[in-house]
Give the backbone structure.
Amino acid sequence: MQSVAADLSVLLADVVPRLARITAFIAAGVFVANVAVAFGLIRYVAGIAGWLTRPANLPDEVGTAILTTAASTTAGYATLAEFRESGFLDDRATLVAVTMNTFFGFVQHVFTYYVPVLIPILGIPVGVGYVSARAGIALLITVTGVAAGGLLLSEGNVDRSALADVDAAGPEDDERGGRERVRDAAGKSWRTLRRIVPRLAVVYTLVIWLVTTYDVTALTAVAEPITGVLGLPGAAVPVIAVFTLDTTAGAATLAGTEAGIFTTRTAVASLLIGSILSFAVSTFRRSIPFQYGIWGPSFGTKVIAVNTGLKLVFIAATVALLLVPVW
């Protein structure tokens, strides 16, 4: 009994400081991000959206939806859906606009998740490397959308006479006072912490216990033939597996591995591979309900196919580039 208590004490002594440090970073980052969103600062990041529409042969009004996506993915998609339903954009033009939306939708997650949550868990080198890779992938998809619009769209894909029936003013003006916005930001931050921190505590405790109790290298040795071909350590297997089901828990799993097992490149590559596999889970959990709700099953399926296909191609290419020097 005393031995168990001593082991538990050692485990908590290792876990609690790490969890407290991460929680502090997450609390500060999420609060600052929510304040920025509440005061509309995030929308200025998307100010270049209008510059992208003309090379893509899309009307300037589509830039409104793209800009809105940086503040609210739902609002941005809803605006595009209204454009399509009114006949202002046909299906091809709408798919191009959805593709161009990718980077601006990513911008929102940078402020609300990647910077305040994921980077503190992964640490600066791996965290910034992973977020930069995802930002580059999102930007390439947006550029692909612009190029596709330039090649595939013409005036025939847009009916400007339908614009009179569209309310494209974007989100309504926020009339809340500064104090109320800060209070709401604090409330949102608390809800985020309440959702994330308990899960992190459980994952961190389990990971540290496994690392200190078992030889992780031996446990993952069966995966060496596969991970060896890619130049990844065997410890990448549990990281990828957990990341597939939950990105935050997967990041915590990687952060709990012994120092020196991963380089920055192999760590980022492992997380990207996990993100590829996680599409299958996230498609059923989030994408289908959201996209079908916005577009309906028929066109929603096309949107999911285009979004998922482009992400798979560019993430796979990024993983290959990261691992080329290892081969």
